[in-house]
């Protein structure tokens, strides 16, 4: 089976995308897949920081360990990863602008495209809100990443 390298991207890389990385890593381990999950931010404002303590706490309660350290997306990511999944449309638009080669644009998508229902246009930023927002991030991401994996596993049967 072809290895898939997945990069999840939000603004600060301390709330949504590290949660996505942990949910994906959990599924990769559970399904014993030769895949890699990583995450990055479009802003470098939190470079070198651990994830937001509220994200760590809510993820832990749902069985996920957030261990990633914030870093900004870099040009080599567009070459190194097979799938680059934005948490919302502003992060997707930013990546389309900085993508170093139009041939790589097909790697970019919005993570909520893979949700079972088309009700979310992105993963809402929980940073300035209450604790419910952090749980909602996990709800949306579990659904979206399950859908993403189904799509990729279905493709790998046919290639
Ligand atoms: P994230 O959340 O993009 O999901 O990591 C945010 C983190 C920090 C800020 C905004 C959103 N901030 O403005 O510092």
Core attributes:
single chain, 159 residues, alpha/beta, Rossmann fold, four-stranded parallel beta sheet, 12% strand, binds 4-nitrophenyl phosphate
Mean pLDDT: 96
Helix amount: 40-55%
Q: Which regions contain 5 or more consecutive residues with pLDDT less than 50? A: none
What is the domain tally? 1
Share of β-strand residues: 5-15%
Content-based structural category: alpha/beta
Helix-strand pattern: EHEHHEHEH
Strands of the widest sheet, in order across it, are 2-1-3-4
- Main sheet specs: 4 strands, parallel
CATH hierarchy, class: Alpha Beta
Q: What is the number of strand segments?
A: 4
The appropriate CATH architecture is: 3-Layer(aba) Sandwich
What ligands does this structure carry?
4-nitrophenyl phosphate
Rg over CA atoms, rounded to whole Å, is: 15 Å
CATH topology: Rossmann fold
The end-to-end distance, rounded to whole angstroms, is: 9 Å
What does this protein look like?
The chain has 159 residues and is an alpha/beta fold. The protein has a single domain (5-158), classed as Response regulator (Rossmann fold, 3-Layer(aba) Sandwich), CATH 3.40.50. Helices cover 43% and strands 12% of the residues. It has helices spanning 16-31, 53-61, 75-80, 89-98, 131-158, and strands at residues 5-10, 36-41, 83-86, 108-110. Strands 2-1-3-4 form a four-stranded parallel beta sheet, sandwiched between helices. The radius of gyration is 15 Å and the shape is globular. The model has no long low-confidence stretch (mean pLDDT 96). 4-nitrophenyl phosphate binds next to loops.
């Amino acid at each position: 089976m072809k290895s898939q390298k997945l990069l999840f991207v939000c603004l600060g890389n301390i709330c949504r995308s590290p949660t996505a990385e942990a949910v994906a890593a959990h599924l990769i381990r559970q399904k014993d897949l030769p895949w890699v999950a990583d995450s990055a931010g479009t802003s470098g404002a939190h470079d070198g920081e651990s994830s937001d303590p509220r994200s760590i706490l809510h993820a832990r309660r749902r069985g996920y360990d957030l261990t990633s350290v914030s870093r900004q997306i870099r040009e080599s990511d567009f070459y190194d990863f097979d799938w680059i999944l934005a948490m919302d449309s502003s992060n997707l638009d930013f990546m389309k602008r900085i993508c170093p080669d139009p041939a790589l644009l097909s790697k970019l998508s919005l993570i909520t495209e893979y949700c079972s229902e088309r009700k979310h246009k992105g993963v809402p930023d929980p940073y300035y809100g209450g604790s419910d927002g952090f749980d909602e991030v996990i709800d949306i991401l579990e659904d979206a990443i399950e859908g993403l994996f189904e799509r990729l596993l279905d493709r790998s049967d046919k290639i």
